[in-house]
């Protein structure tokens, strides 16, 4: 058992845990930060992604000891940070995921959102291809990724004051309405 | 009387006639609204089973069989029990009663009683202070096995029955055989102008939900057992626990929290649920078990491997005359839903095309592999693959456009299938139109150059079934509403939201019916103590059945609310509308009341406000044994066009884009429907190209991890275009049908057909690996005299 000292979501915390515990175990079982998920426990799925010094990091493959003193952000940290900087509601990226239907079961999404956060921090206007590559370490089994891409693009558009193209089903429904209106 | 008899598919308050396609009268339905639980999931606040920790909680682990087939002669746990920190060890003797999700085929034990039947079959479970101690204890349990002959080949299991995998089965290693014939198939095929006969093979695939199975049990001092489990069917787990633990059901509470994906993989009662319950009863402490990813692969219940033989005949103008199928299904070691799978493998093929005659002969056999079960598109994805490829072969022989042959065989709406299933709304032709137009089919098919092609396929699927797993006359779906004077409505539903958004769907319905804002609605779901029974999230039944039950409950309350307002205003009830959090007088714009005032007025008049609602299917199905299996109150229809690119040097196939048109009745939330369609197509295409639930020659899983079992990443997934077709079903809630499973079916055959368009080769054995592509190319070149434009030549095979 060791006492670890972490800097998590802006808080300095000390926690006693077995030496061999991973960051994921400490977050989930000691700190109650259960937003970070365990999907495979071997670095395949990305559900445990957190940010360490702003970079996506697999908490299940990280010994807790190795990230002492680093800045760790979990999914629970985004909304408070957004509020602290004067924002309302959830983090704009979290809000975009909700708005765009990107959350089905939601299990992969904390990791996915953090990977996207890290992408936007280094590249505020990514292309679809850049989004695909940035999120390729996070497996999603529900969505087929499409609404996730749309959510990231929607958040980017909102931040830039631009609009996104109509989604396939929206465009198709609009066309269908036009056809019905035509006598 | 169920909701179906009380309302049509129109908006509850609108002036539009029933059946109207217009969404203008709906205030909530038909809009791309947010989900109820989206933000809680996005912020990490949503709790899943493994997120719960209770004071004094123990951790449990399972010891699993290293043999695919063996007799368990002796289990000695004394050394494990002596390990400090170990609180209890249980074995098969602790829970000898067999269970199975289908009540006719109970053949599973929570822990092996006398035999193990696959590598990974649970043998013993340990509860300890922490996971490390529990894992250490597993190594100290001594098990003596007598190894038996292992069946890994379904063809062997079909003919060899000694030793049997299940001793008490009358038909040796045959789990189920269904042979049904409708009309004179042999004559119809003999009289056909063209006949295509071929073999197809579907490999196994699995669900691979990102959340591993997890269960936590706690037992109160007065003997009430609570189980929190990552299940998609709380009701069946409830029943199975009562049976196996020999407890009265009212002493058991089963709760499903947020679920991290299921796709059918969390439909069975699972070993871990019984184990934590038993260990909690034994130790008097809460016990949790979280399966590793590897254990999830052993528990499996994924898509059955099938060997499919099809023979189809058609007239010169492309009309089907008969279809004859013989299917061998590799069931793995236990029955699971296998009885239903076997029926579904034949029963669900009889649309969207008219089959004048049809026969299928499906046999599911036991093998010593992880048990197969229901995966998204249960039992019907494999036959659909085979048949839709065969339909393209027929089109090729007749020099017909593949979309055209599908149009010519369209069965129509409001009809009956050859096997006696009632079909109501049917938007299949519109689906074909949509994908034909969007993909540029007419201009592009056959003209994209060698290595690039377009393929089409169609399908139908059920929106629930009237076969309720265990026969009973009670409703399949129940809803309870509680109205609070604060203006809040709490909805209690036994429905399982597994990420598909069923809780949100219920809230949309209630908001629409009672004229409320979404924020005025909370949903309490999937808790057997609090919610009325619902049969759970399977067979694509939830939107159809729970939606109808919600309408039923709302209409009862609505009558009270309207009556109270009309009395207060001394006006005719027809003038009162509940809309957007208000009651308004449609003839006097100055008069309105907030829903809080309405609720309080109604509570004063009628006392505490609440209502129940329910849904049961009408009597459906063919008049023969098994005729109700696959009988659905409504069917969804789908068409896909897939565009692929094949590298002829390496044989690597990639899907460039897919157009998915799906008839979901009315889209209650088009964004959620599109999400289901995209997710389905993604999953189907992955099954065709990447995924393989494969065992080696010893019966050991070839790669039980999310690295070796290749889920597509965001880079591997093609562009997906969801095109929603709304046929407005007369019996669905506001005309809605399912959208969660149907849209998967055509992905796989459409890709095979696209590869044919690209290269002139027919891939009939899944998955479409580079090796198979190259082999087919070599074979095609050997068979074909060298000619220019060989790939465009039709009708040579």
Describe it.
With 183 residues, chain A is α+β, with helices and mostly antiparallel strands. Chain A folds into two domains: 2-77, Ubiquitin-like (UB roll), CATH 3.10.20.30; 78-168, [2Fe-2S]-binding domain (DNA polymerase, domain 1, Orthogonal Bundle), CATH 1.10.150. Chain A is built from seven helices and five strands, in the order E-E-H-E-E-E-H-H-H-H-H-H. Chain A has helices spanning 23-30, 78-84, 92-99, 109-122, 128-134, 146-160, 168-181; strands spanning 2-8, 11-17, 49-52, 55-58, 71-73. In chain A, helix 3 packs across helix 6 (146-160). The radius of gyration of chain A is 19 Å and the shape is elongated. The model of chain A has no long low-confidence stretch (mean pLDDT 95). Chain B is α+β, with helices and mostly antiparallel strands and 797 residues long. Chain B has three domains: 3-31 and 475-615, Aldehyde Oxidoreductase, domain 4, CATH 3.30.365; 49-148 and 222-259 and 266-289, Alpha-Beta Complex (Aldehyde Oxidoreductase, domain 3), CATH 3.90.1170.50; 376-467 and 626-792, 2-Layer Sandwich (Aldehyde Oxidoreductase, domain 4), CATH 3.30.365.10. Helices cover 27% and strands 23% of the residues of chain B. In chain B, the strands form seven sheets. Chain B has a seven-stranded mixed sheet with strand order 3-5-1-12-9-10-11, with helices on both faces. In chain B, strands 7-15-14-13-8 form a five-stranded mixed sheet. Chain B has a four-stranded mixed sheet with strand order 18-26-27-28, with helices on both faces. In chain B, strand 9 (214-219) and strand 10 form a beta hairpin. In chain B, helix 10 packs across helix 11 (402-408) and helix 10 packs parallel to helix 18 (747-759). The radius of gyration of chain B is 27 Å and the shape is globular. At the A-B interface, helix 3, helix 4, helix 5, helix 6 and helix 7 of A face helix 1, helix 17 and strand 28 of B.
